[in-house]
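Hello,

Following up on my earlier ticket. Below are the five sequence lines again, exactly as submitted.
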Amino acid sequence: MVRHTETKAHTTHKRTKRYVQRIKDRSEKAGQAPESLVSPPGATGTTQIRIVDYDARTFNEAEAQSIEECGTYAKTPTVTWINVEGPNTPELLEAVKQSFGVHPLVLEDIATTSQRPKVEVFDDYVFIVVRMFRYNDKAATVEEEQVSIVLGKNYVLTFSEGHNDAFDILKQRISSNEERLRVTGPDYLAYAIIDVIVDQYFAILEKLGERIELLEDQVVTSATPSTLEEIHGLKTELVYLRESTWPLREVIDRIEEAKTPLIKASTHPYFRDVYDHTVHAIDIVETFRDIVSGILDIYLSSVSLKLNEVMKVLTIIGTIFLPLAFIASVYGMNFREPEVASEWGYPAFWLVTAVIIIAMVVYFRRKGWILQSTA
Amino acid sequence: MVRHTETKAHTTHKRTKRYVQRIKDRSEKAGQAPESLVSPPGATGTTQIRIVDYDARTFNEAEAQSIEECGTYAKTPTVTWINVEGPNTPELLEAVKQSFGVHPLVLEDIATTSQRPKVEVFDDYVFIVVRMFRYNDKAATVEEEQVSIVLGKNYVLTFSEGHNDAFDILKQRISSNEERLRVTGPDYLAYAIIDVIVDQYFAILEKLGERIELLEDQVVTSATPSTLEEIHGLKTELVYLRESTWPLREVIDRIEEAKTPLIKASTHPYFRDVYDHTVHAIDIVETFRDIVSGILDIYLSSVSLKLNEVMKVLTIIGTIFLPLAFIASVYGMNFREPEVASEWGYPAFWLVTAVIIIAMVVYFRRKGWILQSTA
Amino acid sequence: MVRHTETKAHTTHKRTKRYVQRIKDRSEKAGQAPESLVSPPGATGTTQIRIVDYDARTFNEAEAQSIEECGTYAKTPTVTWINVEGPNTPELLEAVKQSFGVHPLVLEDIATTSQRPKVEVFDDYVFIVVRMFRYNDKAATVEEEQVSIVLGKNYVLTFSEGHNDAFDILKQRISSNEERLRVTGPDYLAYAIIDVIVDQYFAILEKLGERIELLEDQVVTSATPSTLEEIHGLKTELVYLRESTWPLREVIDRIEEAKTPLIKASTHPYFRDVYDHTVHAIDIVETFRDIVSGILDIYLSSVSLKLNEVMKVLTIIGTIFLPLAFIASVYGMNFREPEVASEWGYPAFWLVTAVIIIAMVVYFRRKGWILQSTA
Amino acid sequence: MVRHTETKAHTTHKRTKRYVQRIKDRSEKAGQAPESLVSPPGATGTTQIRIVDYDARTFNEAEAQSIEECGTYAKTPTVTWINVEGPNTPELLEAVKQSFGVHPLVLEDIATTSQRPKVEVFDDYVFIVVRMFRYNDKAATVEEEQVSIVLGKNYVLTFSEGHNDAFDILKQRISSNEERLRVTGPDYLAYAIIDVIVDQYFAILEKLGERIELLEDQVVTSATPSTLEEIHGLKTELVYLRESTWPLREVIDRIEEAKTPLIKASTHPYFRDVYDHTVHAIDIVETFRDIVSGILDIYLSSVSLKLNEVMKVLTIIGTIFLPLAFIASVYGMNFREPEVASEWGYPAFWLVTAVIIIAMVVYFRRKGWILQSTA
Amino acid sequence: MVRHTETKAHTTHKRTKRYVQRIKDRSEKAGQAPESLVSPPGATGTTQIRIVDYDARTFNEAEAQSIEECGTYAKTPTVTWINVEGPNTPELLEAVKQSFGVHPLVLEDIATTSQRPKVEVFDDYVFIVVRMFRYNDKAATVEEEQVSIVLGKNYVLTFSEGHNDAFDILKQRISSNEERLRVTGPDYLAYAIIDVIVDQYFAILEKLGERIELLEDQVVTSATPSTLEEIHGLKTELVYLRESTWPLREVIDRIEEAKTPLIKASTHPYFRDVYDHTVHAIDIVETFRDIVSGILDIYLSSVSLKLNEVMKVLTIIGTIFLPLAFIASVYGMNFREPEVASEWGYPAFWLVTAVIIIAMVVYFRRKGWILQSTA
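Thanks for your patience. The regenerated structure is below:
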């Protein structure tokens, strides 16, 4: 059991560690020019650029060597999805600036992978930052990653820190001729990407929900110190999750309100839809917070109740045997007690003892102590 | 008593289980095309389509075999209420799309029966999602169900997961010639449906109110661990109820504000009225939350008070008998105590014992310990 | 003391009972036509209709037999106040509809005496619902009642559940020629009625304030379990009071903003004034909630402190006498202890005992235990 | 120490008493005509009217016998400050009405000295109510008083319940030729009065801050039951302070927004400045509330920790001496124990005793109990 | 350990002391003319004026003897940054008034170094107050300082209480030809200064985050009373930090909205960016508050759990040895017990003893007490 506790603590601790690490990455930029492009401190691995280029009739998939190569695709009237996975090197970002003409601040936001969800509408493109979640089953913790989206006239640029299975599935949906995706433009693709990300919130919430279900069961039947760890772990996850979902609501709301020709009127209901999903996810997070804090109350109360039970046992034993021990000691004194001389002394002693015990038991039963301690 | 506790825990646990199940249903859609129509995972049973077709003079009721059949009714100038009960198969939804021309996203929302309350105003119809509650007396828990409403020019489409007695009563009100219902159009029918659903909130709140009343009584006179279970159960119900009622307020507000010819000016006061009812229900939910959390405080305090009482008993016993036992032991030692030799030794011993006991009782009475422990 | 506790619990319990009863009354309407007029379930007694008809020069007071009779008064240019007290029968409400032409929903709101405060502005009249409070000194609880006000061109209709002394005083102010009341129109009368009702909030708050004052005094000097009851009772009253006062603020604000010729510009400062009073009452309710929850903290802390004190006594006694009892037992063993043989054995035993007791007392005094336990 | 506690409790109690007294004064008006002018119930002493009349070049100070006298001053183009100190008799207020033509509701607000801060803009004058605070060092409590300000074309009327030193200082600043005060008009004077009042909030907050500082120090080193009293006292003061400062923010905001020629554009930055100060004061109040509630947490935790420490001592003693006492008793039994016969029995007994004691001490030290109890 | 505790307490105490000191500085101004310029009470040291004057091609750095000297620089079309470090004497501020024509209230705000963050837009300049933080590693506490910024047509004036390393780095960025800084005007410089200050918030949050990380680890494995101190210390820091960051959000929002030609359209995205950073910092502060208050819950629960564990040990010992001691005493009585006469008496006694001990151990193991106490 001790081990279990340590594991849990370790997990929560690691969650906070990762959160603080992000702040560190963010804070190390202090003092630099606002648009300075540095590799994120902890980033390793190589960067992969995947291109998906399609319209109603054609579909091409390719792996690009450089951003410049992508620029050519983006200029064609077909929809081009350029997905950059892995750390963003200054060179790569410089190339993005050259090929797509994005604002230096946007590049900085792409490079700093600890951004708050945001949207920035420019004349030629819309820049969106969202946070993606993934449930790590082994560590029983939520992993978080930034996805930056640049929606241009004929292209969608996405930057993510690692490889996303969800993006593969989306690509497959495009290639398998899903009608609306193929017919509509890049705004719909941008929506589809955000929708896929928001859908994963529900997967996370499902996992947390299952843990809450288990916890609710456990807290009643068999609360242990590790239950407390689990409560704290869940609370912490929900706090971090909350911080990332609340701003998303505002972001999608602002995308909808933005008067930009880049997002067609026909795509608006879809953004409205993903907005509803986000709000739903936020509602669930808030509900879970309430439930978990209710579970903590139950836990604390059950600890108090157990203490009461423990103390009742001690008090019952003490109240019965302390007076009895006193009586027994009395007749062990060196005085010549008249009772000792009597023939009926010894049986009388046991009678008194029995009477005291029975009286006490009756008294405690009336007070509900014995009943409750066995309940 | 143990059994009672388990039952309660089971109930709360099942409530959370159902809630998490809904999130699971929702999350399983992740990765699919946004408009993909799949049967809800847990849905079973057959789907029934009931038609009520009426105007000021005529009234027809029929059971339809298919949605296409309903389309014919809907085209006549009479008001047609098509009530679909049971799981929504993809085929059925496809037929709805063909016959009534609703947006694919609307179909998806109808299919996913774990939606947040919402309203979407289109040119030809208004789409409304509300959540209906039913109190399960046996399980002492609240059951929840989604009702989707499509308000068109001459028709109202409703989709619910199961059969609603409340809808039967409404149908009867139409057939029994209730004036306003027969004279007014489908917008009034849509209002009447929502009104019936909101009215049931008060039925739920009444049941919860009764449980709170009982709890308030119990917590003072006879709090047991199962009381704590009941407090947690009520808190949980209220948290879930809250999540479903708050958005409804916004939904009805937006129906009122919507500038659509589908809702006539004369129906607006009715929507205003149901809005007021919703806000009232929310107020009651919040008030109940405050009351229940006050009851928890009382419960926790009474646990502490009982611990105090228990400890006072032990302390009184210990404080009286530990010194006495010591004295008795002293005169049982192998030393030749001069007191033992004295003739008055033994009576003197009992005198000292009596003095100590009386002094202690007086002392504790002055401190209010004995008075309080019997109060 | 036991009795006192039960009384208090009974009171709080009854308060919640009344609240739940209102929800029941409300919920029993479920499934009925929205405008169906049924007598409120619990209402008994006869209905009284009093008419006060006045202008700057004339003043008439009468008891009407029927609403139709009142209609005649209302048509004259003098201000007519029709005060209906007691249960509203469907016949009476039907007569109101015929004579004053109010909307069916308004009639329903008048009939359902568990409404949330609201205002509805129609072309010919303004409909206002407020909640009136009365402090029941015997039961030490707040009683609540709905007052519905219909402000028409030349008349004010009021419906209340019982007889109000406050209305009598207002009538007297009219009859005794209070200048402004006589000169101004029905809008000022409506204001005066609301003002009288809001003024009573302060009377309620005064009573609760006195109880809080008492409680604050008590919690320090002599907290008993009944103190906890009183804290819960006050918290509960404040929660219910809050639910009724918050919406009133909005109601009066909307009266002020309403662009209706029924309320003259010269009356606006008066509504502004009663708005300020309402906000002040709300402020006091919130302040009281904060104070009472502070008192609960003090109470809980003092319970913990008392437990500490109790345990210190036991620990001091145990720590002194358990070792001593052990020593005494040692010299009661059957071994032939060398100390027993010694002449100085017995005095030495008492010396050791004294040293241990003194050492312990000094130790506990240094630790602050003995000092604090007597403080 | 007992005495100290009582004093503190007394102080907090008196604070609440004064607060409730104000509600009583307010509530006694119930049932009266809204504009009825009655002397405040508790008011005693005589009323003083001081006039300060100045412009850039002239400065006159006088004590007026009646309000009528002041009217003459007010009509001259010089700035006239009429400061009425003490209870407002109906005659005095009637004179104010005659001379300055203020609305009856304003007079009522001046008479009722328990108003919420408010501002009312009329054509000819602006009416402002603010609450002034004074720290009573002896009673260690905050005293509160209403200041009503009527800002007219050439005059400022102020009504306060008692004499304010702060107003004397302001008068001195005028007489000592402070440039801006002499050159600018009555709007600047009104600002200066409000500024002086808001400045005193910081004096109050300074005093409370010092007490919080002390408390933070005390709670760690030497928490006593009186510490709890002090925490409650501070919390209560902050709750009352908060109720008075929040509305002031709104009041000053509304003065700024008011489009009245009585407040010149050049005075606006000054009102903006005093607005900033008010918001700052509110921020500090909220921060103090957070800090004090953090201190309460520390206090409660330290009580629990001390209980732990107490119980550890008892448990250590009990765990060591209960088994030992049992063993000693065994060899005091009437059985003929073989160990007693042995020569090595008695030394062996002491050896066993020593081993048990040492083992227990080592065990508790490992568990961290002994270390912690001395820490 | 005791020492450690004291140090921590000392630190928190000092933090509150500094906060209260600021209120004192602020409150000592009470009663003075609003624009009176007095040296801040606690300020010492000399004031340094540094000038950085640059445009795209030129760069000059100088130390000025007086403000008048700076005025000359400011009039040239090059961007001039005048950085005043140290206490602001009345003479200096008077010179600022003469040379730059700022409003007297602005001078007062510069002089009072305990301002709330604010922005004031004038025709010729924009006045901004922000609060700067610095983490004092030695004292493990956050230090706070006011930075006042006056943004004019060709110049930026900054006033800070001490020397800022961050400003040196910014100067270096200018001198090292950072493109955007050199090309753009004073509005960009003002942005860069605020950006540098906000960046430091993340450095502070990183430090606090590390402490929270440590705390989360500690609270599980080895909570001591000093842990409680650290929790309180962190909570306090976060409360103070929160008070300073929330208003900044509003300030930057108002800078963006201000329609002043002093801030060019091209600079707006930068202010938007620093706004996002501020909001992010606020989010982190709120998240940290939630986490720390979760840790406090864990701490309190673990204290309760430990008490349970302690009490279980005592109860187990008491429950086993009190009855045994009673039995042993019985056979030490002066009665002639028949069992003593029996040959098997003594072995039987030990058998009974063993049976009782084993039964108790089994019983407690079943109850989970012994398992848990060793877990």
